[in-house]
Amino acid sequence: MREAGILYCNCCGKKIPEGYSRETEDFFHFEKTWGYFSGKDGTRQTADICEFCMEQWIAQFRIPPQTVERTEIFEC
Ligand SMILES: [Zn+2]
Fold first, then answer.
1. Distance (Å, rounded) from C-alpha 30 to C-alpha 53?
2. What is the distance in angstroms between the CA of the first residue and the CA of the last residue of the chain?
3. pLDDT digits (tens, 9 = 90+) for 39-70
4. Which of 4, 9, 26, 42 is the most exposed place for a label (fewest CB within 10 A)?
5. Domain boundaries, the chain
6. Cα of 19 from ligand 1 centre, angstroms
7. Which residues pair with 45 in a beta bridge?
8. Ligand 1 centroid vs 73 CA: distance in angstroms?
9. C-alpha 9 to ligand 1 mean position (Å)
């Protein structure tokens, strides 16, 4: 969630430090518009979750998300 230009984690409420570029920003942004049959018809939800809360959240998954090691390193 962004308020007055500062990014906060929706989960813990802490400030998310922003990097110099999109590549170095480590947080999870989600945006979801619910469909007709979801019971939240047409509702749009957005949130930003910091890396720590993301880890906590993922730990509760029965099936962990697929993790792919990045093998290509892009250098500027
Ligand atoms: Zn958090």
1. 13
2. 30
3. 777 789 999 999 999 999 999 999 999 988 87
4. 4
5. 2-58
6. 16
7. 32
8. 27
9. 5
